[in-house]
Amino acid sequence: MVGIVNNNRMKYFGLTLIAVILFIFDILLGSTSVSLREILNLFNGSGDNSMVSTIIFDYRIPKAITALISGIALSICGLQMQTLFKNPLADPYIMGISSGAGLGVALFLMGSSIFGASVISSLGMSIGITLSAWIGAFCVTLLIILLSKKLRDNLSLLIFGVMIGYIGSATVGLLQYFSSSAALKSYVVWSMGSFAGLSQSQLLILALFLIAGTLISIYNIKDLNLLLLGEQYAENMGINLRASKLRILISTTLLAGGVTAFCGPIGFIGIAVPHIARAVFKNADHRILMGGSALIGISTMLFADIIASLPGQSGVLPINTVSSLFGIPVILIIIIKKRMI
Amino acid sequence: MGALLELHNLELGYDKKRIFKGINATGSSGEFIALIGPNGTGKSTLLRTICHNSHLISGDIIINGKITSQIREKELAELITFVPSLIPRARNLSIYDMLSLNCYFRSNWLGKVGKKDRELIMDSLKLVGLEGFENRDSFSLSDGEYQRATIAGALVKDTPVIILDEPTAFLDVSNKYLITNLLKEIANKNNKLIIFSTHDLQLAINNCDKIWLMGNDNFYDKAPTELISIGAFDKIFKLQDYRFDELTCSFRPSSF
Questions:
Q1: Dihedral, CA atoms, B92, B95, B96, B100, nearest 10 degrees?
Q2: Which residue in A12, A73, B104, B137 could disulfide with A237, CB within 3.0 to 4.6 Å?
């Protein structure tokens, strides 16, 4: 037992180290090259370079923090959903929660342009996007709660997620005909996913979502462990199963809904990271997996962000493209190995 | 003092469909009781109803003098343990962690158990013959070992009544007898009331203090010998060309 505990501590330490290194690299690397010396000068106050200061403080550090928050949120979200639905493929993206959010945003952006409400201020715009993404995510979660008995097997879950995705793209297709190109463009930009461009107040709201969602998730750990042995077994312990499930889904909506609203739909991280954590820690205990998934999620997201904004290219790749390139191989391995949780 | 468990005129059903009525039975501490009946009569429904009041239409279930439909889930969970027939296995879940899940209301908010429960877990593992298994991955156990681990889990939960749904259904002959003997021993030595459903007549007749026999709108709560003498088995299992044979405790072709 002691050996296992020490071993896990070493793994936690290693993962934290990787996350810190990636965080630093994420700040250092980008389309404009900034040397480490320039950054250090910035912190010393010795150099006086306002351009570097703007790049670092107004752009790269908020972007890295957003990536970090999204990594934690999506990973522990996927972990909880996989245990709750006893399904290794469950995550907010597959289950259509992200698509629901996307649908909400599409309706808001393009709907408002159709009805001539194009004079919304930029603040109103960002509040509108956030709220509509949230409502979309919440509606799909509600639907999942209602259908949860039927969604237990992999196939129906996948079908559900794919269908919600189709409804989303069909609605977007329909709206495209009527909406302005500006509204269409802002939807497409949102849907590609990005960690950049969050204002400090937006970042604060996202952080609050994360803190609330994470606290509920930590409180869920005991029930999640019990759910490993099936719902019948959990019920037998005398717990209120409905309340536990609701608590898990509320925390996942807070986490996934918050991230999707601000950063766009980011796929496959929620599925892949918990499986990597299981492989690293070789333990089903959520007391260990929750922290492990969060740390691996941070590293994965930061790495994805580094790849997305690799130097030597003029623009920034959509995060969703990069995360798919990581996540899909993991999913294929799960399906091939039929690795159950 | 009356019996530990009393069933008074239970009627079971789902929504509007009635399944079975007129169930009257008792069980006392230290008794080992088998529930027998044809497929589809509602054995599992009865067991689940005793544990959770889930399909109760009318009648009273009384445990330790308390009507179970009037007490809280948590209190009921401290009186009775249900072991489902197929408990899903989690990969990389150690036996120790699996058993500590049974201390749900005694462990802290993160599920960490105290010293007393730690000892109980170790003692329970020893009792079911799984000493030294605490750090093993529950996924790597054989079916017989896993079933023993779930029984250890019921012991860790430490309730006066333990109910098992077909605990021996997926086991080979030697494991079947091993598990049955183990349950019988726990009932006798630890003074628990153990009720389990099975399709194995012979095993039930030879080992159990009482049999609850249900089917064809009849419900018997009697000792095995009594059931044989009144010809209850032939009445419940209406087989055309087979008769219940007292000597072998099984059905044999009636032409013999």
A1: 100
A2: B104
